[in-house]
Design a protein that fits this description.
Elements (H helix, E strand, L loop, with lengths): L2 E5 L1 E5 L2 E7 L4 E2 L3 E5 L6 H8 L8 E5 L6 E6 L11 H10 L8 H13 L15 H13 L3 E7 L7 H18 L2 E5 L3 H7 L2 E6 L2 E7 H4 L2 H8 L1 E7 L5 E8 L1
Parallel strand pairs: 5-9, 5-10, 7-8, 8-9
Antiparallel strand pairs: 1-4, 1-6, 2-3, 10-11, 12-13
Helix pairs in contact: 2-4
Length: about 250
């Protein structure tokens, strides 16, 4: 099963150091890991550094990558839209990047499967530019998954989705990670989503990794006060699920 590890990883834009010396234990496949922190904490930059889109200090190691699978795929928060391509064409283009342009029956079957799994088959021949923000986000997920990554970095993949679609996507990704042994890192602002769906959580703030580990051990009243500046509790609901309840600003 794939595993990802960061050792003293840093990144900067020009002379501005965004973060430095971020190290993690092995993040193993089969589960979702949440990346949380306040706005402008460097979550997107960390994903770009892991994906190799930015240079910086330190080492990113991916082990046990299977033949035919791509080590890392990054799904950015702002996916943009190209009105020239249909949804189907955009996913096919993503599938063929770096692997030649010959299209096999298996490529088309995989696209059909993803469209069906994400419940967007009806969008297949719509122009990307005609889609809503939420629809484009679902297409971006299909574009990422069709590349068959071992490590998938998802930058706020539910930010434009309604509540039903948020739950649907997170449940789908949790099942997929378990079934495929994929390591999925998801930047989230909704901490209750992290508590419900992510077994591990990383907290980044002020250019540093402040905490990492089991989600229930990381999302605590002390962390919420220090990082998010709110007075909050973590309590179980009537069904036994942990929830963050915010009482006010700290």
């Amino acid at each position: 099963m794939v595993a990802l590890k960061l050792e003293d990883v840093g990144a900067h834009y020009g002379r501005v150091q965004v973060f430095e010396a971020i190290s993690t234990d092995w993040l193993k496949g089969g589960t979702l890991t949440a990346l949380i922190g306040p706005n402008a904490a460097g979550k997107s930059t960390l994903f770009k550094r892991i994906a190799g889109l930015l240079k910086g200090a330190g080492v990113v190691t991916v082990e046990d990558v299977r033949e035919g699978f791509r080590p890392i795929c990054y799904m950015p928060q702002d996916t943009g839209a190209n009105a020239v391509l249909t949804v189907y064409e955009s996913i096919l283009l993503a599938a063929k990047q770096g692997s030649g342009w010959r299209v096999a029956d298996g490529d088309l079957s995989e696209i059909d499967r993803l469209l069906s799994a994400l419940h967007i088959s009806d969008l297949a021949f719509r122009d990307l530019g005609a889609l809503s923000g939420g629809q484009r986000q679902l297409v971006a997920i299909a574009q990422a998954l069709v590349r068959k990554p071992e490590v998938l970095l998802m930058d706020e993949p539910t930010s434009a989705l309604d509540l039903f679609r948020q739950i649907e996507v997170l449940e789908f990704m949790k099942r997929l990670a378990m079934a495929e042994g994929m390591a999925v890192l998801i930047a989230l602002h909704d901490l209750n989503h992290a508590l419900r769906y992510c077994s591990q959580t990383l907290v980044i703030s002020g250019g540093k990794l402040l905490a990492s580990g089991a989600t229930l051990d990381v999302i605590t009243p002390a962390m919420l006060r220090d990082v998010y500046r709110v007075d909050a509790r973590v309590e179980n609901c009537t069904q036994g699920r942990p929830l963050v309840i915010v009482d006010g600003t700290a």
